[in-house]
Amino acid sequence: MTAADPEKPVALASGRKAAPRPRGRPPADAARAVPEERLLHLAFESFAEFGYEGTTVRELAKRLGVSHNLLNVRFGSKADLWRRAVDWRVARFGAPVFAVFERTDLDPENRLRLLVHRFCGWAAENPSFISVSHAEGRRTTWRLDYLVSLYIRPFKHSLDALFAQIEATRPMRPISSSAFMAMLVQGVGFYFASTPMLEALGVADESAPEAIPQRVAEFADTLLAGVLGPAPSVLEDRRASAPA
């Protein structure tokens, strides 16, 4: 959607013309008038698309129609804004994945199955987070330290514990939790974050919105079959179709 020209009068419902926007800085309370969710969403998407160094608070403020000085007052430095945007994104979209570790109503194996399916769904819905984690994972920075200490390491510890619980009751194909996480994030996640590549290959329909649930299920079932073997429902179908 193209933003309206701030210098061009806008037609009102009454037919009168609205006064053109005055030149100069935005109103002092303009930054407060922007919903925080919209601001953090735009900030996170910019960090994902242009990287931390390529994103400027001035450009964000311009896109939001507020003064970059007011944005600094509201959120502090660019580093503070990056932290707030990451925390918001994880809290907004990551909670259903982390919650699986607390599902005491499920046995460990079914907890892992649900976790992988939810993670694959999350990766499909959050390609920008995959872009951020990929960019930050390749360099040693304070941002990588932040992601690892607050989110990645706690997830790995929980996954380690879940693997140990499963291995205590049944065999699993040996794989480190970090390698398994890489397949989830940089494997499944990269696929959904790489629409231009799929278009270049002529298979863009594979990631069309209506096809995503099937893709998510295929990825999850394939990964789980690799470490656990076929799902119980698949084994039951095979037994039912086997000759007597």
Automatic annotation (TrEMBL):
Residue span, HTH tetR-type domain: 33-93
Superkingdom of the organism of origin: Bacteria
InterPro entries in UniProt: Homeodomain-like_sf, HTH-type_TetR-like_transc_reg, HTH_TetR, Tet_transcr_reg_TetR-rel_C_sf
Pfam families on file: TetR_N
Single annotated GO MF: transcription cis-regulatory region binding
Keyword Lyase included in the entry's annotation: no
DNA-binding region: 56-75
Keywords: DNA-binding, Transcription, Transcription regulation
Coiled-coil residue spans: none
Region span, Disordered: 1-31
Keyword Transport: no
Protein name (Swiss-Prot/TrEMBL): AcrR family transcriptional regulator
Organism this protein belongs to: Sphingobium fontiphilum
